[in-house]
Amino acid sequence: MLIAQISDPHIAEDGRPLGQVVDTVAYLKRTIAHINALPQKPDLVIASGDLVDKGTANEYEVLRQALAPLQSSFWPLPGNHDNRVALREAFPQLNTYCAADFESPVCYSLFHKNLQIICLDTSVPNAPYGALEFDQLAWLEKQLAAHTPQTACLLFMHHPPFQTGLQHMDGINLRTGQAELAEIIKKNPRVKRICCGHVHRVTQQHWAGCLALTAPSTAHQLVLNFDPKSSAALIFEPPGYLLHWIDEDPDSTQKQPITADSLNIVTHYIPVLETPPIQHYYKDLRPT
Ligand SMILES: [Fe+2]
Q1: pTM
Q2: Residues with Cβ–ion distance below 5 A, ligand 1
Q3: Distances (CA, A) of 38 to 7, 34, 96, 267
Q4: How many A from CA of 219 to the centre of ligand 1?
Q5: Could you list the pLDDT tens digit for every one of the 288 residues in the chain?
Q6: How many angstroms does the Cα of residue 166 sit away from the middle of ligand 1?
Q7: Contacts 24+ apart (CB under 8 A), 93-100
Q8: How far is the centre of ligand 1, averaged over its atoms, from the C-alpha of 145 (Å)?
Q9: How far, in Å, from the CA of 39 to the mean position of ligand 1?
C-alpha cells in the first residue's frame, strides 16, 4: 500500500505566483504529474494543510483544477492558511466523514485495507499557530477507542507537536493541547505515525513514543537557520513530497493482515526535480 503525502502547496488567487515569485500552481502540477507517473499508483493522496494561501473560494477552485489530473483518491486537511468553510465547499467528499457544520474542525477517520487514517484539524481561524481544544481531543480519543489495539493507525495533522529548532516556525507550531495529545498517543501505541506539514522542510522526531514527521512543500521550502532571530525566509530548495510505503504482507509465511504489531511502514522523501526519471538510463547502463 502506498500513501502519498503532499503539503503546503499555497495556491494563490487566480493562480498567480505567490508573492510574485513562487509559481505554486506550476509546482503543484509538477508534483501531481510525478505522483501519476510512479510505477505503482498510491492508494491515497493526503494533503497536510496550507492548500491555498488566503482561503478564498477562487484559490480553492484553482487548486481543484490543478488536482484534476490526479489518479489517486485525494483527502485534504486544513492548515493555518486555509479556510474551513471554503475547503469543505471545494471538497464535498468530506461531507460523509466530517461534522455537518462547515465551520467546525475538519476532523475525519478513514479505513483503507484494515488501516485507520485519522485527519485531525489543528488550525485556528485567523491564527498562524495550531491548537487542539477539548472537543478535538475528545473526538480523537473516541476514534481511537472505537477500534481494537491491533488496528494500525496513521495520524495526519498540519501543525507539528514537536519543536524543530527553527524558532521562526516553532513559535507557531501546535501551541494548545500538545501535552494532552502526547498522553493520548502514549495510551494508543497503535498510532504508528504522526504526519504533519507546516514547516516546509523534512523533519522527524520520536515524540510521545511515536515517529512524528513533517513533509516538504510541493513549492517553496523555508530556510534552514537555527538563529532565534532568523525570519521564515523562503528558499528554492527542491520541492517534494513523502511516500509512505506499507508492507501489505509483512509475514509472508503467515499471510496475516496488517496489524499494529506487524505494520512495516517506511517513509520515502521524494524531491520533485525538473530532470526526467532516470530508471531507463540505469537500465541502459546495466552491465551485461
Ligand atoms: Fe505553509
Answers
A1: 0.93
A2: 8, 50
A3: 18, 6, 29, 15
A4: 10
A5: 999 999 999 999 999 999 888 999 999 999 999 999 999 999 999 999 999 999 999 999 999 999 999 999 999 999 999 999 999 999 999 999 999 999 999 999 999 998 999 999 999 999 999 999 999 999 999 999 999 999 999 999 999 999 999 998 999 999 999 999 999 999 999 999 999 999 999 999 999 999 999 999 999 999 999 998 888 889 999 999 999 999 887 665 555 667 888 889 999 999 998 755 544 444 555 554
A6: 14
A7: none
A8: 31
A9: 29
- Which domains does the chain possess? 2-285 (3.60.21.10)
Cα 109 to averaged position of ligand 1 atoms, centre (Å):
23
Q: What's the CA-to-centroid distance between 200 and ligand 1, angstroms?
A: 6
Residue located via cell numbers 513533509:
215
Amino acid identity for residue 143 in this structure: Q
Q: Give the Å distance between the CA of 228 and the centre of ligand 1.
A: 20
Q: How would you class 239 by CB atoms within 10 Å of its CB: exposed for 0-12, middle for 13-18, buried for 19 or more?
A: buried
Q: How far is the centre of ligand 1, averaged over its atoms, from the C-alpha of 171 (Å)? A: 14
What's at 223, amino acid-wise?
Answer: V
Instruction: Compute the distance from residue 82 Cα to the ligand 1 centre, in Å.
Output: 10
